[in-house]
C-alpha cells in the first residue's frame, strides 16, 4: 500500500486543536483507503520561537522539505506581535513558503447552500458563489529587494520595499491559473494595477502571452480597485482569479469573508515539484485558543486538498469533502457558523462527527 | 462679496455631463449666498490627449494651480487603454495630484437611509455605515523610484516599482487623519501590512508617534488583509481609516461599493495649502456616456466638499448636501440607484431637481 510522509505544523493559538482533528480524519481515511501515513509533528511560528528562539527552526524546514506534503494549523498571536521582523511568527511562514518554493497559492471561496445565511451579503448575491483565487506566493513585494530602512538627504527616516516580478515568475503562476480555470468553468480574471505600476504592466503582458496556450480559457483583466468592488457587488461573476502576492493577500481574504464562513475555507500552496503546503485560511484566533471552540473544518478541508493536490489521492479527498458536507447536513455547527435550531458543538465533537460521516 | 476662481475639468465619458450639473448647482448657490465664481473649463485626461497629445496640458495644470479649487469629472476610457504609460489619461490624473501636492485624499462612504437597499449587504449590516477613508495620495508605490523595466542576469524581463515612505509623508497624512477623526467619532484605524513590509513598519511607528498629539482620538492598527475582510463583515466598526496610497485605492473602492451607491460618493484631495481637487469617486463610465443616464449626485456632493474643505464655505456646502437629500426624499433616482415605485430620471433632470431643492 502507498505510504506518505506528512509533516504536521500545529503552530499557535487554535492551530494544535484543528490539526489534531484533521490528523484523525487523515488516519481514518488512510485505514479505509489502504493508504499509510507517517506523521511528524514539528514546531513553527510562535511555538517555535518560544521553544527554539526562531520562528522556523532548521529541523522543521528539513522535515517539511522531506515530506510528501505539509499540513499547517495557524501561526501568530499578540504575544509575538511586537517582535522584530526576523523574530515574528509571520516571518517563519514566509521562510517556509520560500523554502518549499510554493509559488502558487490556491484559495477557494465557496458559499455552501447550508451556510448561505452566514454571509453578510444578501442571499441572492451570496448564493452560488464559487470562485478560486490563485495568488502568487513567493515573489512580489513580499520578497523583493532592496527593502529596509534608510535616511534621506534631510536626515529623515525612510521605509521601503520593492514590488518586482520577473517574466518566468508571472508565466508559471499564469499557467497554474489557466490550468485551474480549465478544470473549473473556463474563465480567468487577471487582476493588476497596470494603469499605474510597471510591475503590473509586465504582469498583464505575460499573462496575455500565456493565454495563447489556453485558447479554451476566457481571459479578462481587471484593476485591483475594481476587483475589490466587484467582489462585493457581484462575486458570482468570478470563476478563477489570478493575481500577485499582495493583491492576492487582500482579495482572497475579502473573497473568503464574502462567504461568511472563513472557518470553512482551506488553501493549498504548490510548487513546481516537491511537497505542497496546506493550511486553513483563518488565523490562530488566540482569543478562543484552548477553549474547544474552533471550527476544525477548514483544516479538515485543507487535508482534503492535501490528498487531492499534494498526493493525487482524489478518492480519499472526495470522501473527506463528502463527510464534511454530511456533517453539516446532519446539523452540526461550531459557534462561528451556528444558527438557531442547529446543533452547536465544539472543535472535538465536530471532529468526532466528521469521523462518523467518513 | 467673496469671489473664487474654480477650474473645471470635465474629462472623459460621463465627466462633462456630471460637471455641467455640478456647475449649475454651484452657480445657483453662489447667487443665493452672495458668493461669486469664475469658472475656467480646461481639457484633461483622454479629452486632452485627443486635443493636445498629452493627458495633462501645461495650461490645464497652470489654471488648476492658480485656482481656489478644482472640480474634476472623470477620466479614462477604452480608447486610450492601450496607450503607453505617459500617454494614459490616468497618468494625467497622477500628474495633477502631484502638481497640486494634494497628499490627503478624503473618501467618505456613507449609507444613506434612503439608499440602504442599494447595498448588496444585508440591511442590518449596511444601515448606518458612515466611514471616512483618508488615503495618502502623492507617495508610496504610485510615485516611488526606482521604477520601470529591466533585464536580469538570465536575459529575462523584469517589471518593478518601489513602495517608499519618508517619515514626514506619514506624519502629515496621519495628522489629517487624526483631525478628521476628531471631527467625526474620535476613532481612527490605521491600516498597513507591518507584519511583512518595512514601509508599513515605519508607517505604524510614525502613526503611533503622532497619536500622542491627539489623546482624544482612539487609535487602532489593522493589517490590510484583515481590513478588507472587516469591511465586509462589519463596516460599522469603522469611523475613520488612514492608509497608504495603494491600500487606500483598494479599500476605499471596496468601502464605496459596500454602500451600494457609488454614484453618490464624492472625494476631496487636499494639500498643505493651495487648491484642493474634488471629484466623484466613480469612473468615466464610457458605456453610458452622452446618454443622459449618469448620476450627477456624486459630483454635486464633490462640489459641496469643494465649498466646505476647499473654500471654507460651510453654509453653502450644507445647503447643497441638504438639497441632495431633499431630492432623494422627493423620490427622484437615476438608474444606478433606482428601485420600484420611485421616479426614474436622467442626469439633466436630476440636476434640475437638485436646483429646485436648493
Ligand atoms: C501571516 C501573513 C504573513 C500571511 C500573508 O500575508 O501572506 C497571511 O496573511 C496569509 O495570507 O497567509
Ligand atoms: C485612475 C487611477 C490612477 C486612480 C488611482 O489608482 O488612484 C483611481 O483608481 C482612483 O482611485 O482615483
From TrEMBL, chains A, B:
<dbReference type="InterPro" id="IPR019818">
    <property type="entry name" value="IsoCit/isopropylmalate_DH_CS"/>
</dbReference>
<dbReference type="InterPro" id="IPR004429">
    <property type="entry name" value="Isopropylmalate_DH"/>
</dbReference>
<protein>
    <recommendedName>
        <fullName>3-isopropylmalate dehydrogenase</fullName>
        <ecNumber>1.1.1.85</ecNumber>
    </recommendedName>
</protein>
<keyword id="KW-0028">Amino-acid biosynthesis</keyword>
<keyword id="KW-0432">Leucine biosynthesis</keyword>
<comment type="function">
    <text>Catalyzes the oxidation of 3-carboxy-2-hydroxy-4-methylpentanoate (3-isopropylmalate) to 3-carboxy-4-methyl-2-oxopentanoate. The product decarboxylates to 4-methyl-2 oxopentanoate.</text>
</comment>
<keyword id="KW-0520">NAD</keyword>
<dbReference type="InterPro" id="IPR024084">
    <property type="entry name" value="IsoPropMal-DH-like_dom"/>
</dbReference>
<comment type="subunit">
    <text>Homodimer.</text>
</comment>
<dbReference type="GO" id="GO:0003862">
    <property type="term" value="F:3-isopropylmalate dehydrogenase activity"/>
</dbReference>
<feature type="domain" description="Isopropylmalate dehydrogenase-like">
    <location>
        <begin position="5"/>
        <end position="354"/>
    </location>
</feature>
<comment type="pathway">
    <text>Amino-acid biosynthesis; L-leucine biosynthesis; L-leucine from 3-methyl-2-oxobutanoate: step 3/4.</text>
</comment>
<keyword id="KW-0100">Branched-chain amino acid biosynthesis</keyword>
<keyword id="KW-0479">Metal-binding</keyword>
<keyword id="KW-0560">Oxidoreductase</keyword>
<keyword id="KW-0460">Magnesium</keyword>
<comment type="similarity">
    <text>Belongs to the isocitrate and isopropylmalate dehydrogenases family.</text>
</comment>
<dbReference type="GO" id="GO:0000287">
    <property type="term" value="F:magnesium ion binding"/>
</dbReference>
<dbReference type="GO" id="GO:0051287">
    <property type="term" value="F:NAD binding"/>
</dbReference>
<keyword id="KW-0464">Manganese</keyword>
<dbReference type="Pfam" id="PF00180">
    <property type="entry name" value="Iso_dh"/>
</dbReference>
<dbReference type="GO" id="GO:0009098">
    <property type="term" value="P:L-leucine biosynthetic process"/>
</dbReference>
Amino acid at each position: 500500500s502507498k505510504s506518505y510522509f506528512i509533516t504536521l505544523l500545529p503552530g499557535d493559538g487554535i492551530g494544535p486543536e484543528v490539526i489534531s482533528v484533521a490528523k484523525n480524519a487523515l488516519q481514518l481515511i488512510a485505514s479505509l483507503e489502504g493508504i499509510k501515513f507517517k506523521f511528524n509533528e514539528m514546531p513553527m511560528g510562535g511555538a517555535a520561537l518560544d521553544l527554539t528562539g526562531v520562528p522556523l527552526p532548521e529541523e522543521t524546514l528539513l522535515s517539511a522539505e522531506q515530506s510528501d506534503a505539509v499540513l499547517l494549523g495557524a501561526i501568530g498571536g499578540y504575544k509575538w506581535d511586537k517582535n522584530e521582523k526576523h523574530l515574528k511568527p509571520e516571518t517563519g511562514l514566509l521562510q517556509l513558503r520560500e523554502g518549499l518554493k510554493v509559488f502558487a497559492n490556491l484559495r477557494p471561496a465557496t458559499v455552501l447552500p447550508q451556510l448561505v445565511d452566514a454571509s453578510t451579503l444578501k442571499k441572492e448575491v451570496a448564493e452560488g458563489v464559487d470562485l478560486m483565487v490563485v495568488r502568487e506566493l513567493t515573489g512580489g513585494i513580499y520578497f523583493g529587494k532592496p527593502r529596509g530602512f534608510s535616511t534621506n538627504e534631510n536626515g529623515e527616516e525612510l521605509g521601503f520595499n520593492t514590488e518586482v516580478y520577473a517574466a518566468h515568475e508571472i508565466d508559471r503562476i499564469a499557467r497554474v491559473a489557466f490550468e485551474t480555470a480549465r478544470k473549473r468553468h473556463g474563465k480567468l480574471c487577471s487582476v493588476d494595477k497596470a494603469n499605474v505600476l510597471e510591475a503590473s504592466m509586465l504582469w498583464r503582458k505575460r499573462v496575455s502571452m500565456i493565454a495563447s496556450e489556453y485558447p479554451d480559457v476566457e481571459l479578462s483583466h481587471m484593476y485591483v480597485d475594481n476587483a475589490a468592488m466587484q467582489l462585493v457587488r457581484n462575486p458570482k461573476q468570478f470563476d478563477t482569479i489570478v493575481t500577485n502576492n499582495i493583491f492576492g493577500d487582500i482579495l482572497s481574504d475579502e473573497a473568503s469573508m464574502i462567504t461568511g464562513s472563513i472557518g470553512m475555507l482551506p488553501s493549498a500552496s504548490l510548487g513546481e515539484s516537491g511537497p505542497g503546503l496546506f493550511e486553513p485560511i483563518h488565523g490562530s484566533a488566540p482569543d478562543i485558543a484552548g477553549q474547544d471552540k474552533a471550527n476544525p473544518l477548514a483544516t479538515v478541508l485543507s487535508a482534503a486538498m492535501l490528498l487531492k493536490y499534494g498526493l493525487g489521492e482524489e478518492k480519499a479527498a472526495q470522501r473527506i469533502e463528502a463527510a464534511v458536507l454530511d456533517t453539516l447536513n446532519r446539523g452540526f455547527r461550531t459557534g462561528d457558523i451556528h444558527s438557531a435550531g442547529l446543533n452547536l458543538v465544539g472543535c472535538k465533537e465536530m471532529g468526532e462527527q466528521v469521523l462518523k460521516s467518513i
